[in-house]
Write a structure and sequence with these properties.
Elements (H helix, E strand, L loop, with lengths): L7 E8 L20 E2 L2 E2 L2 H7 L5 E8 L4 H14 L3 E5 L5 H8 L1 H4 L6 E6 L2 E3 L3 H11 L3 E7 L9 E5 L6 E6 L8 E9 L2 H20 L3 H10 L8 H9 L5 E5 L4 E3 L3 H18 L14 E2 L3 E3 L4 E2 L4 E2 L3 E3 L4 E2 L4 E7 L4 E2 L4 E7 L4 E2 L4 E3 L11 E3 L4 E2 L4 E3 L2 E2 L4 E2 L3 E2 L2 E2 L1
Parallel strand pairs: 1-4, 1-6, 4-5, 8-12, 14-17, 15-18, 16-19, 17-20, 18-20, 19-21, 20-22, 21-23, 22-24, 22-25, 23-26, 24-27, 25-28, 26-29, 27-30, 28-31
Antiparallel strand pairs: 2-3, 6-11, 7-13, 8-11, 9-10
Helix pairs in contact: 3-8
Length: 415
Amino acid sequence: MGSSDGKVVAVIMAGGPTKGTRFRPLSLNIPKPLFPLAGQPMVHHPISACKRIPNLAQIYLVGFYEEREFTLYVSSISTELRVPVRYLKEDKPRGSAGGLYNFRDLIMEDNPSHIFLLNCDVCCSFPLPEMLEAHKRYGGMGTILVSKVSAESASQFGELVADPVTNELLHYTEKPETFVSDRINCGVYVFTPDIFTAIQGVSSQRKDRANLRRLSSFEALQSATRNPPSGFVRLDQDILTPFAGKKQLYTYETMDFWEQIKTPGMSLKCSALYLAQFRFTSPNLLASGDGTKNATIIGDVYIHPSAKVHPSAKIGPNVSISANARIGAGVRLISCIILDGVEIMENSVVVHAILGWKSSIGKWSRVQAEGDYNAKLGITILGEAVAVEDEVVVTNSIVLPNKTLNVSVQDEILL
């Protein structure tokens, strides 16, 4: 194991285009990790949290997107945070642990004593320095961030049992059919470099088993459909489950918010959580106004400096307005994400909705939904360049890009 004050490297798993299908139509225009939550790209929140880790040497983004899609962002965030950020493109699926192992030489270039591994589609307060301190006290190979959830929702995640005194991980099972525990895996980890030895061990065992099976051509034929290739190693089933109860893995429980960002609905909820967190971490990013010189602001609101908002508009709570948006007189915005270049004409109302890039909302129109973040049509989503004409009401609907709506719609997916 490395020295307690050695360098730290962070790896953020960004996924890829085939993984973000539930995020459509928003992911048709932009890689999901770059979709803005609270005015900042989704991946910006874990990256900026990494900045607080002592002795941070490097941040790697690992994913299946083309490198050119991240070039501008990686360059600007490296300059802004003064930490080297680099995008690494995976060439084939290897599982979460296999993907980490594939880039082990680069990750170990700075000879780090600890490696953070984070999933991009996680929304939380990322208590990374506190996790690192706890991990050093435990003295194991890895520490997992865990959270307590309702018994009903626990089965959607990896459930785990930990020793209440030592916090050692005793048992881990991924998405069990029967209830195991209300403590779940948050998808945020810190490891020593020993994790690479563990991953290599799993891979070697697979190769050995495959070689043995070749002795029987019938068994080889059967197992080819059942078993993943030797280089495909999943962190949950192949590392966490077998190493539980062996004094190698420990847990650190967060009492703050935690959500997974799988759908556009959840992105709206997580945008609200990050806006609320700005009160404590970045109050300068939150807008203010009382309707005299600036629009009336209620609750947590982010407005990009280049956006134009009429002083008679009323904005918030939970509103994020992106670059070059134009918000007209008498407009009311509640719980919504307004993307770049959107125009909302006077006296229109937007509630529980995401308005896509360069969309336009006519006068006296409403774009609204019930606000059920988990339901398929719980929020209204307009894709890029959707035009809603004057006095049209769009309720609980998803509209794909480049559509013009001149009649009201409800509970519809407009292709």
